[in-house]
Amino acid sequence: MNGHVAGLRVWGALPERYSGRQVATSTIDAQGRIVALLVDPDATCAQRVPLTAPYDATAVVIDGGDRYEVEIHGLDLRFPKIDTLGDGFVLAAARCTMPSGPAARTFEELEAEIPHNARVIGADGGTTCTFHAGDGIEDLMTDAAGDIWIGYFDEASICALLPGRRARLADGSRPQHRATMSTPGLIRWTSAGEPAWYALSDRSGPRSWVDCYVLNVGREYTWAYPYTGFPLVEIDKKGVRCVRRTPVDFATGIMVDGGTLAFVASAGGRTKTPGHYTVTLAHTDGGPIEATGESPLLLPDGSRPRVWAKRTVCRDGRMWMQFEDPSTWYVIEV
Q1: Is 70 exceeded by the pLDDT of residue 72?
Q2: Kind plus residue range of the DSSP H or E element containing 296
Q3: Residues 6+ apart with CB under 8 A from 52
Q4: Please, what's the b/e burial string for 83-121 (b: 16 or more CB within 10 A of its CB; e: otherwise)?
Q5: What mean pLDDT value characterizes the chain?
Q6: Residue 231, helix vs strand vs coil
Q7: Contact 112, 54 (CB under 8 A)
Q8: Residue 173 pLDDT more than 70?
Q9: DSSP string, 50-77
Q10: Does the structure show a pLDDT above 80 at 2?
Q11: How many CB atoms lie within 10 A of CB 65?
């Protein structure tokens, strides 16, 4: 960012050797590396049509001039999401079919009905574990400690795994049960796919988590920006640290660097032009967030993007964006 002109720069791109593959999904991991899941050109996993058969994919990690690939076979994930996890990856299907029909009579029957639409992949491409991550996934991101953060949009639901309230078992643990949770907002999972924190269960957070509109997973903290109120929620491993009112509604990205913030939102009110974004600079000294200025979001050549971003990733004071080209990532920083 320079004065009041917010400038994007090219962060990196997939090598030309992958030009014949379809980018099913892509992200930027906690180390700033480009991560992509590549499939055959005729694969339908990222299209609004039913999957007719499992598909094979190549997970690629690009770190400057270095790259490595992992072949993954037999995937059945619709609208897949990906991020690195240790030496491997975590994958999830953004959409899955939730159980319907007669209620299961036992916990075991329910477990058999619930779709395991997330899987942890090892460095050899094999699946180390699977888990139910719910339907309606907006964002999947991992942090430097190896936890998995999943943000959900407003059609989401999950058969949430919760500790039982009955007496403890002989080993001291409590029996588990599942409860349907609509619009879960945000959930943190362990690297083994076990739920560690639910936004809806944290009484220090906002009451409304209809949609986790923006998720920023940093090195020390995670920030969420939930609809309907659009507050900035600061979270650590213990839960919600604070909730602050923000000066911008419907932002698509948020950058946080200490007390300096930037909100990226579509420009123009009701007469929005595709690709026209406004960057609102803001500041906080621990209290309210105050806007300090705004400027248009510009490409490296000084022009505005021509389309809305296809993908965005926010980590601390950086925001990465993809536009028409699914192989190229741009970045803006505060």
Answers
A1: yes
A2: strand 290-298
A3: 44
A4: bbbeebbbbbbbebebbeeeebeeeeeeeeebbbbbbbb
A5: 92
A6: coil
A7: no
A8: no
A9: ---S-EEEEEEEEETTEEEEEEEEEE--
A10: no
A11: 7
- pLDDT of residue 288 exceeding 50, the answer is yes
Please provide the DSSP assignment of 207-234 as one string.
Answer: S--SEEEEEEE-SS-EEEEEETT--EEE
Instruction: Tell me which residue has tokens 């059945």.
Output: 76
- Tell whether the model's pLDDT for residue 6 goes beyond 80: no
Tokens of residue 301, six digits: 């050549």
Cβ count within 10 A of residue 249: 13
Smallest CA-to-CA distance from 76 within 24, 29, 150 is with 24
**Residue in the structure block whose two tokens are 């039982």:** 164
Residue 143 identity (one-letter amino acid): D
Report which DSSP code applies to 22.
Answer: E
146 has pLDDT over 50? yes
158, containing H or E segment: strand 148-163
Residue-level pLDDT at 100: 76
Helix (H, G, I), strand (E, B) or coil at 200: helix
Interior angle at CA 34, CA 61 and CA 117, nearest 5? 75
Predicted local confidence at residue 167, as pLDDT: 43
For the whole model, what pTM was predicted?
0.93
Give me the helices (H) in 61-177, please: 107-113
Tokens of 318: 């950086």
| Environment class of 189 (CB within 10 Å of its CB; exposed 0-12, middle 13-18, buried 19+) | buried
CA quadruple 314, 154, 157, 224: dihedral positive or negative? positive
In tens, the pLDDT along 205-250 reads 998 899 999 999 999 999 999 999 999 999 999 999 999 999 999 9
**Predicted pLDDT of residue 105:** 77
